[in-house]
Write a structure and sequence with these properties.
This protein has three helices and no strands. It is mainly α. The N and C termini lie far apart (64 Å).
């Protein structure tokens, strides 16, 4: 019985990690960093990534940095 509970928690941990990696990709965040964070601290990472805003990458079209 104890082994079954361990497998369930491991499956939840892996599922939350996959969700965090996918959500990080949508938000233009580091997928690797969020994967590690999601695996080590799954509940905290799941809550945290829900409240994050997308990281915006601005194009420099002024021609000054060529």
């Amino acid at each position: 019985m104890e082994g079954v509970i361990t497998l369930i928690f491991l499956a939840l941990r892996i599922g939350i990690t996959i969700y965090c990696v996918n959500k990080a990709g949508e938000l233009n965040r580091s997928k690797g960093g969020w994967g590690i964070f999601g695996f080590l601290l799954p509940i905290i990472a799941l809550i945290w990534i829900q409240f994050m805003k997308p990281k915006i990458v601005w194009d420099d079209r002024s021609g000054q940095h060529e």
